[in-house]
Amino acid sequence: QVQLVESGGGLVQAGGSLKLSCAASERTVSSYAMGWFRQAPGKERAFVAAISRSGGNTYCADSVKGRCTISRGNAQNTVYLQMNSLKPEDTAVYYCARVQSSRYYAGTYYTTVAEQYDLWGQGTQVTVSS
Question: N or C: which end of the chain has fewer CB within 10 A?
């Protein structure tokens, strides 16, 4: 069974940076559009960033735009989320996810809609202290 595993979370001071990784147990990351979401305590899950299957199209939510970079690893089976200038409001559990059926879509496709993602990781905690 394919699994997504996030890593790289932790405790960081405001203004710091973190690079989150998402790896798959099989070669699924390279064949699908992928995304990152986050959920803070008491809040709904929110979209953070997305990347197309080709890797040539990316998008970051307005809340993190200018501080966010989503990318694919050289081995193509890993997706990264680089977050800079972190703020306390970035504190959340961060999840990576796979866009359902996107291996059949154009390589430029990505989506911000959580309902279009069918495979989710367990999440990694990011805590930003003020």
Answer: N
